[in-house]
Records
---
Amino acid sequence: MLPLNSLWLGYMLNGIGKVAPPSLSPQCEKICQQMIKAEYIGAKVSITRSKCPSYYGLEGIIILDTKCTFKIISKDNVIRSIPKSSCVFKVHFGKFNLEVFGKDLCIRPAERCVKKFKTFNIPKL
């Protein structure tokens, strides 16, 4: 799955590079909008917060993105299904680590790319 992750990094550099350079300066809101609307298959993620303590600290590469779950494969070659609504994900993007609330991603990936999101609202777990 590491080649899939390198393809995803190229996809994100291409998408965010059109908005702003990856220095995350004044156009942070546009970059956040791009990250929420992006495709996550191939992304390396770790779980930073969760309602279920057994999910905390898990990390791996996303192999399937559904409406309510991510399926990730970890270093020990185990596929785990993680619910989006109860977790906060840290997306490893090159030198940057961006936190994404799972509640913002609880939409089908095809519908997520056309929806407008408010960036000032911080949801509770």
Note: The chain has a mean pLDDT of 80.
---
Amino acid sequence: MKIAAGWGVEQSRLVTWRDPVTTQAAAASMSGLAYWQAVADGQLPPSPIAELLRMRLEDVQNGRIEFSCAPDASMYNPLGVVHGGAVCTLLDTAAACAMHTTLPEGVGYTSVEIKVNYLRAVTTGSGILTAVGTVVKAGSRIGFAEAEVTDASGKLVATATSTLLVFDLPSNAKPPSTNGNHS
């Protein structure tokens, strides 16, 4: 399709990532906290979704994780603001990965549901976003976590609560097929 003149300069962004299949066995053989500490230390690569959305791991503790995200215009919707799905993905990642930090070796997780409240629009002028996920309750089969995203000025952008399914990973370290894999 040929776009008519006057619609701005064409832009692009190159996204590179490591094959996540190669890190599955390592992730399954570590506690969630040890896994995220290895990512923070550069011993394991970040996940492809982190590279796609320009998320960076900033801090990790048991039951708490922090990511930053540098939004760019490639995340814009037709109205000229960052798509809510990008913010939701950031919230989902922070909440779910916070839960992961509490899990022992051989245990996985996936989102059951997420409830998001969008409080303000995000643009490239919002600056670096910070997402903090914290565990509310880490159960043996169901866990509850929450997350907040703030902009560079510290203003709250969005919040989320999440319910997560906790399950034993199969012995071959491949998680079951689901619609919400967050690692």
Note: The two ends are 36 Å apart (CA to CA).
---
Amino acid sequence: MHYRKRILKEIISAIEKNGTVQENIDLRKAISQLYKVWKFDATAKTIRNCFKRGGFSNQTDSSDSDDEDAILADLKEKWKPMEE
């Protein structure tokens, strides 16, 4: 959804500027937009919802920041042996 939103904004901007729109999106532009989505738009909630919709999670949307902190602390503990 975020990717499509960025692409549509780019198309609308191109139309407003000069009236011509590039028909195809090349791979470089697609990767650039996906990077921006990952960096700026993809929140923990977005990722959690994607996994939930894919059937990989049984958590509810009511989880709060305390749950996220606990999960993050658990991941950090699991990461420590890998760093050594």
Note: The two ends are 39 Å apart (CA to CA).
---
Amino acid sequence: MARDTSRAEVGRVMAHECGRVWLRPLGGGCEWAVSPEDVEPVRLSESLSPLVAEANRRSAEPR
């Protein structure tokens, strides 16, 4: 996971192509491209909370 500093959003890194980093929102959705200089790594402690929230959301969805 990485933080897009230009948008102040965290996303899952999906690809590095054509000089851009492609991120996808943690809850799913459309990917967006960002310049590598606008990307910073997310510490493990920061990344666990969104992952737990995503897992909780999925477990609460009706089947």
Note: The first helix runs from residue 44 to 60.
